[in-house]
Design a protein that fits this description.
With 608 residues, the chain is α/β, with parallel strands linked by helices. Helix content is 62%, strand content 10%. It has helices spanning 2-8, 15-37, 39-47, 65-84, 86-136, 139-143, 147-163, 167-189, 191-198, 201-211, 215-238, 240-245, 249-303, 308-349, 409-416, 439-444, 460-465, 473-482, 486-489, 509-523, 539-553, 588-594, 597-604; strands at residues 370-379, 384-394, 398-403, 424-429, 432-433, 446-450, 527-531, 557-561, 573-578, 581-586. The strands form two sheets. A six-stranded mixed beta sheet has the order 6-7-8-3-9-10, with helices on both faces.
């Protein structure tokens, strides 16, 4: 129930719809019960059970309401029959029945109408909060989670919450009140018969509850497996070129089939248990009705303690309890099923980020002196990838980080942008530890261009506006010119309004990278981080991108992580790294003359 309480918090903004729903449900339950009661006078007229009463009855208080209503009904029927005839009375009774059922269904519709806004509102807010949480959680969180599993939580799991947890909101007032009002009328009709019926209800409830105990576990298996096969789809779409080139279609098809087969088995088990709820409750209900027919028939025909019309309506009332009772038992199964979905959704919503801004974190609008990486050590898991690393990057200078793969170069970029926090030491900008800065403020100072050109399925313009939402078309074009991208964009059918496809796949690698550079230029930050921005390009594209990078780095502080050493010869300082530590430091010429690690790296690469 703790999960249910947390989900209900999302209903607070829609409480007016909840109040209107409750009012409508109360009236639905009331008219639902009265609609059956209204059958008594009609049946009395049809069966000729109406006793002649010529004097209008006198009200004697609430304790005598039943005989008062019976006598008043008999008085009305007697009086109207004498004046207008039996068909008039029968027509009036039929109209009363129609009116009661009309009101019942009208308020039933209104209850559903109001709850729709609440359910869909909670669904919307849950998804919005889930998405907001996903984009604020640290990158380390997603290295442990499959993307498909996250997608499953935001789609099918949230939908399951709507269908299961929130369906209770429809039942929480309507069904219990329908049962309550019906029981009151049943007791007033025949206390003896009602007590007899109630002896069998606990037995039915016990049998129904036994079925639903394992639903949460089975539901959890279904949702986890759904996240699994969504992950396979996501990975397949992302790696389609590799799958096709290695003719590995059958491997991934078999992997997907194995997942959907497990999903098939889990779903069958879950749905079969869930489907058992309705027929079981109905069968047990019919058993109670059968016993009722036997005992009630005895009261009508042998004991003569109950009128036939009252007994017929009593039977209808008894059956009227079955529908809400079935709905409640079904809802209890839904809660168990929804509990698993809520647990998965709330796991993300309740996850606290280790990179949250401190309550006293400050903003910084300018970069004035230097970046100081002060004796830091860092590990992703167990082994340190950076050990006692220190570096100063003065304002306006260009510092390059080189070394073999795994030496810790890209980790520096991850730490300066605070995608991860250092384990030891500190990174300072103008003397302020970046942990004491708001993340948004820190990242506004930094432009990032990565090896993989991360673009979105949108227009070139909208991809660049990620860097600066307020930029004009002229500013966008200027940024594209600096990045050497305007030369090919101006020839596109729709210019900057051309859609570049999923991940920018309508463009070449060099074109994508130049758009990424233009995005960083448009942001116009004082610090640039270039993480192997040219390593995935051919020679011709590399020259164009390198020229764009040099244009971009003018009058800016830059940290360049380089694989191709030809791209960093003009850097003010080159840092050579091995196993997370600095082994050499100096300009290109100084390091060449040292004839050390850098010299060997240069000799291993061919220059144009």
């Amino acid at each position: 129930m703790n999960h249910f309480k947390q989900i209900l918090k999302y209903a607070t903004p829609y409480k007016r719809f909840a109040i209107l729903n409750i009012i409508s449900n109360i009236l639905y339950a009331l008219f639902g019960t009265l609609s059956f009661v209204s059958l008594i006078p009609m049946l009395s007229v049809l069966l000729g059970e109406t006793k002649p009463v010529h004097q209008k009855p006198i009200w004697e208080g609430i304790t005598r309401i039943k005989p008062y209503l019976e006598n008043y009904l008999n008085y009305f029927v007697t009086n109207q029959t004498e004046i207008n005839g039996e068909m008039y009375v029968l027509t009036a009774m039929v109209c009363l029945v129609i009116f009661m059922f009309l009101m019942k269904n009208l308020f039933g519709y209104l209850a559903m109408y109001f709850i729709t806004f609440l359910r869909n509102g909670v669904l919307k807010d849950l998804r919005n909060n889930l998405y907001k949480k996903v984009v604020t959680l640290p990158i380390s969180f997603f290295s442990e989670k499959r993307k498909g599993d996250i997608i499953a939580r935001a789609t099918s799991d949230v939908l399951e919450i709507q269908h299961s947890f929130l369906s209770i909101l429809e039942l929480i007032v309507r069904e219990p009140l329908t049962i309550l009002f019906t029981i009151i009328i049943m007791f007033s009709t025949s206390m003896e018969l009602t007590i007899f019926v109630f002896l069998f209800i606990p037995i039915s409830g016990f049998l129904i509850s036994k079925i639903g105990k394992s639903l949460k576990r089975h539901s959890d298996n279904v949702q986890k497996e759904q996240g699994n096969f969504l992950s396979i789809i996501e990975e397949t779409l992302g790696g389609l070129k590799i799958i096709k080139s290695f003719t590995a279609e059958h491997l991934f098809t078999n992997k997907f089939k194995a997942s959907t087969t497990r999903f098939f088995k889990f779903s069958n088990t879950l749905l079969n248990r869930q489907n058992l709820a309705s027929p079981t409750s109905e069968f047990l209900g019919i058993c109670v009705i059968a016993i009722l027919l036997w005992y009630g028939g005895k009261m009508v025909f042998i004991d003569k303690t109950l009128d036939a019309s009252a007994f017929l309506v009593y039977m209808g009332l008894a059956y009227n309890i079955l529908t809400p009772a079935k709905a409640i038992s079904k809802a209890s199964y839904s809660v168990k099923k929804g509990n698993a979905a809520a647990e998965r959704v709330l796991e993300i919503l309740n996850t606290s980020s280790p990179l949250e801004d401190h309550k006293d974190a400050t903003s910084k609008d300018s970069f004035d002196a230097e970046i100081h990486i002060d004796n830091i050590s860092f590990k992703y898991e167990d082994e340190y990838v950076l050990k006692n690393f220190s570096l100063k990057v003065p304002k306006g200078s260009s510092v390059a980080l080189v070394g073999q793969s795994g030496s810790g170069k890209s980790t520096i970029a991850n730490l300066v942008t605070r995608f991860y926090d250092v384990n030891k030491g500190a990174i300072k900008i103008d003397g302020t530890n970046i942990k004491n800065l708001k993340k948004s403020s820190l990242r506004q100072l930094i432009g990032l261009v990565t090896q993989d050109s991360i673009l979105f399925n949108d227009t070139i313009k909208n991809n660049l506006l990620v860097g600066n939402e307020q930029a004009t078309d002229e500013q966008i074009i200027d940024a594209l010119k600096i990045a050497n991208a305007w030369e090919f964009i101006k020839d596109l059918p729709n210019g900057i309004d051309t859609n570049i496809g999923d991940s920018g796949n309508k463009l070449s690698g060099g074109q994508k990278q130049r758009i990424s550079i233009a995005r960083a230029v448009l942001k116009n930050p004082p610090i640039m981080l270039l993480d192997e921005a040219t390593s995935a390009l051919d020679t011709e594209s590399e020259k164009l991108v390198q020229a764009a990078l040099e244009n971009m780095m003018k009058n800016r502080t830059s940290i360049v992580i380089a694989h191709r050493l030809s791209t960093i010869q003009k850097s003010d300082s080159i840092i050579v790294m091995q196993k997370g530590q600095i082994v050499e430091q100096g300009t290109h010429l100084e390091l060449i003359n040292k004839n050390g690690v850098y010299h060997k790296l240069v000799n291993m690469q061919s220059f144009d």
